[in-house]
Design a protein that fits this description.
globular, alpha+beta, 115 residues
């Protein structure tokens, strides 16, 4: 099992008195589990005005660090929730999830429903 986070978590936001919303997703790290895909989970934390504050990634996939690197760059670049959702992704069936089930974008969509 792999786990990591970047930026602010819910706990940090609560301790700092920051109003936030989170979104989670669960996906496969490849197009299908039939191709050997492993479950990957993402939780993103956004400020009340929709700025990405941080994210957590966990699962049995070695790609956890890849998603954390992406989230780190998005936090550093002050991505809005709309920018996260519309961020371009590549699709290589043997090594990425379907663009329709990208875990980072799905988590952002779920957070947007709470803002």
């Amino acid at each position: 099992m792999f786990f990591g986070f970047s930026g602010f978590t819910e706990k940090i936001c609560t301790l700092k008195g920051i109003q936030y919303a989170t979104g989670t997703s669960q996906s496969s790290d490849r197009y299908t589990k039939a191709m050997g895909g492993k479950e990957i989970n993402v939780k993103l934390t956004f400020s009340e005005n929709g700025k990405l504050l941080g994210g957590e990634v966990w699962g049995k996939s070695e790609k956890v660090s890849t998603y954390l690197n992406l989230i780190t760059r998005m936090v550093e670049s002050e991505y809005s929730i709309e920018s996260v959702i519309s961020a371009g992704t590549v699709a290589f069936p043997a090594s990425t999830p379907s663009p329709l089930s990208s875990p980072v974008q799905l988590a952002a969509v779920n957070a947007m429903k709470k803002l």
